[in-house]
Amino acid sequence: MDFFPTEEQKMIQQMARDFAERELKPRAAEIDTTRLLPLPVLKAMAGLGMMGMNIPAEYGGSQTGVVSYSLAMTEIGKACASTAVTMSVTNMVAEVIHAFGREEHRRTYIPRICSGEYPSGAFALSESTAGSDPSSMKTSADRSGDEYILNGSKTFITSGDIAGIFVVWAKTDKSGGAKGISAFLVERGTAGFKVGRNEEKMGQKGSPTNEISIEECRLPRDSLLGREGEGFKIAMMALDGGRIGIGSLAVGIGLAALEYATEYAKNRIQFGKPISSFQAIQWMIADSFTELEAARLLVLRAAHRKGKSLPFTREASMGKVYATETANRVCYKALQILGGYGYMKEYPLERHSRDCRGTTIYEGTSEIQRLVIAREILGGNLV
Ligand SMILES: Cc1cc2nc3c(=O)[nH]c(=O)nc-3n(C[C@H](O)[C@H](O)[C@H](O)COP(=O)(O)OP(=O)(O)OC[C@H]3O[C@@H](n4cnc5c(N)ncnc54)[C@H](O)[C@@H]3O)c2cc1C
């Protein structure tokens, strides 16, 4: 067992940390207020290899591996959660295309994602009546000669406003439940595929979250990813990987909150002493850091297993549920350490707390992660 990152992993972590400190941290509050991610920053991240970290170099990826991806994601999440979630969905889309796309898809789209020509990718699975249960989706894809005609709508799609390429799930067999779902690639601007309003959210406000309406959207037959009926499997496999990204991001938000609160506690004087000298404050700091370290190790174990091509569904769900819930607890305590100042917009704790909240919801709620973990354990995966 080796708990130490390799020299290359440390280098990538440091590169992401330097970039995040320099380019993201100073802008995070403004990104939150304006609800706008600076596109040149995303392009610069792509230039540093952060938009295709698990993609082979022949398609423009940096192929730094999953552990490096997790370490980098934590650094970006620490500085700006909106940017981190964009990085997460973009890497996820590149990986879906790499894993399930035809060679032509890979050669066409992946280099555009990795180079930053597309500021982001988007993953369009959820619908207003199909969230935790995507098998109940209504969007349909009907075959007509050499085309598929898609009709329906999607809800809460991260990066809808900025994505160049969308992976879109639709039913090719309406009576087929999960087995009737297929996945398609849709380029931005395709007729009949309209990105709608950017939802007003509680946090991660710089990351656009859009509705999408799909009306008589005609796609060439080879827009299909994988085979007809494989869409559900593709979504679940992609989400397993995506959960490593979200768990890593959440650890970053938790660390940012804790670091800020710790420095504050050393300098805030009450009853003639720094509040850090009070045991109640020390326990909040100690518990928070312990739990964040446990979360980090769980997420990194999932990343390590994915990188070694070992099964990692259970580990990714454990990492996601534990890291995201821990980060929320940590933000709660860190804000408490700042007292009234924690509640004020002038200090970053209220933003971290808002940014963190969504992480237990998207890419599968905490309840769904627990279903996945229980299913694995009840199925005998208990070692
Ligand atoms: C900021 C943000 C970004 C998002 N980005 C994307 C995106 O890019 N692409 C995309 O496709 N989707 C995206 N989503 C959608 C997200 O994946 C869904 O919101 C999530 O899966 C939950 O679905 P729902 O909101 O419909 O809640 P519901 O499924 O209606 O769930 C409501 C509650 O019931 C619980 N619940 C549901 N089923 C069960 C069960 N079987 N057992 C126990 N409890 C259950 C849930 O855990 C939750 O607490 C995003 C959401 C948000 C908030």
Structural notes for this entry:
- There is one protein chain.
- The protein has 383 residues and is of the alpha+beta class.
- The protein has three domains: 112 residues, Orthogonal Bundle (Butyryl-Coa Dehydrogenase, subunit A, domain 1); 107 residues, Butyryl-CoA Dehydrogenase, subunit A, domain 2 (Beta Barrel), CATH 2.40.110.10; 146 residues, Up-down Bundle (Butyryl-CoA Dehydrogenase, subunit A, domain 3), CATH 1.20.140.10.
- 51% of the residues lie in helices and 16% in strands.
- The chain is built from eleven helices and ten strands.
- The strands form three sheets. It has a four-stranded mixed sheet with strand order 1-4-5-8. A four-stranded antiparallel sheet has the order 2-3-7-6, covered by helices on one side. A two-stranded antiparallel ribbon has the order 9-10.
- Helix 5 runs antiparallel to helix 6, helix 7 runs antiparallel to helix 10 and helix 8 packs antiparallel against helix 9.
- The chain is globular.
- The structure holds flavin-adenine dinucleotide (FAD).
- Flavin-adenine dinucleotide (FAD) binds next to strand 1, strand 3 and helix 11.
- The SS-based structural class is alpha+beta
Low-confidence stretches: none
So, the CATH homologous superfamily of the largest domain?
Butyryl-CoA Dehydrogenase, subunit A, domain 3
Q: From N to C, what is the helix and strand string? A: HHHHHHEEEEEEEEHEEHHHH
Largest sheet: 4 strands, mixed
Sheet-strand content, in percent, reads 15-25%
Treating each run of at least 4 consecutive H or I residues as one helix, how many helices?
11
CATH architecture of the largest domain: Up-down Bundle
Mind telling me the CATH class of the largest domain? Answer: Mainly Alpha
Radius of gyration: 21 Å
Beta strand count: 10
